[in-house]
């Protein structure tokens, strides 16, 4: 990541390419930040404070579609066909380099759509108060910090969309981070999905809306990484198989003594 930043700070001549890289990067990071903030705020209120106003009984159907569109789009874009589509989405010769940034941009828009256009049911089952409120808020905040740590360990430049536009700015081929095995990835193979699942269940307000979201996306967090691991198995072969044999999927194991170095 540091080498990518240093190279991007000294881009060779090419005003059109530089403008494209900086413009796409700015829009992507703005929408990425907005999507994350919308998610944090909406779930903090148990999905009871969104902007959607679809009348019942259609509201639940629309809300289900909002839930489904994110994992479906995510999985499609991570496929081979989706990768080719991402490379062609930006017209001209730079679409391939910007593919990872385009992916993050689309994912950010999907998050914004989900968490701002949700139609609240208006039903609140439980709301933390007093000391319990502050305890739950602390756990909710820790869950988000855990998610941020897992994202950093996985390669922040890829997760945030910076890899594509910074590579274009520096006029170099995008170089994806190696298979993550350090940090939280030493404890479990899927810390991002586990941390995200924790954010779903540690909110201070509980509604039918939040329960639907939590159940749906927890199932996604448990099942979707199987597809990711298939891709890793094809890409890294025996190295990933050793890692998979040594590190649990989602629940850390209690270790005794010193373990083997699984990722060599």
UniProtKB/TrEMBL annotation:
Indicate the family of this protein: Belongs to the nurim family.
In its keyword annotation, does this UniProt entry include Transmembrane?
yes
- The protein depicted here goes by the name Uncharacterized protein
Topological category with respect to the lipid bilayer: Multi-pass membrane protein
* Cellular location(s): Membrane
Q: Can you name the source organism?
A: Spiribacter curvatus
Source domain of life is Bacteria
| CC per GO annotation | membrane
Which residue spans traverse the membrane?
Answer: 20-46, 58-78, 98-118, 124-147
| Sorted UniProt keywords | Membrane, Transmembrane, Transmembrane helix
Q: Transmembrane: is it a keyword of this entry?
A: yes
């Amino acid at each position: 990541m540091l080498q990518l930043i240093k190279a991007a700070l000294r881009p060779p001549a090419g005003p059109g390419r530089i403008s494209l890289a900086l413009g796409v990067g700015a829009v992507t990071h703005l929408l990425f930040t907005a999507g994350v903030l919308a998610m944090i705020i909406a779930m903090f209120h148990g999905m009871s404070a969104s902007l959607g106003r679809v009348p019942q009984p259609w509201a639940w159907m629309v809300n289900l579609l909002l839930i489904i569109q994110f994992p479906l789009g995510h999985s499609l874009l991570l496929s081979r066909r989706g990768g080719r589509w991402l490379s062609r989405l930006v017209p001209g010769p730079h679409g391939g380099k910007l593919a990872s940034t385009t992916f993050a941009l689309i994912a950010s828009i999907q998050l914004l759509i989900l968490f701002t256009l949700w139609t609240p049911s208006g039903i609140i089952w439980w709301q933390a108060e007093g000391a319990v409120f502050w305890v739950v808020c602390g756990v909710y905040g820790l869950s988000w910090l855990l998610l941020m740590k897992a994202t950093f360990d996985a390669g922040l430049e890829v997760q945030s969309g910076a890899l594509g536009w910074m590579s274009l700015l520096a006029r170099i081929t995008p170089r994806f981070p190696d298979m993550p095995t350090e940090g939280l990835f030493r404890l479990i193979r899927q810390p991002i999905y586990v941390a995200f699942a924790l954010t779903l269940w540690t909110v201070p307000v509980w509604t039918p809306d939040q329960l639907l979201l939590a159940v749906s996306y927890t199932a996604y967090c448990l099942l979707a990484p199987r597809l990711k691991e298939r891709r890793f198995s094809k890409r890294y072969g025996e190295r990933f198989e050793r890692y998979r044999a040594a590190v649990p999927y989602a629940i850390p194991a209690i270790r005794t003594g010193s373990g083997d170095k699984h990722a060599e």
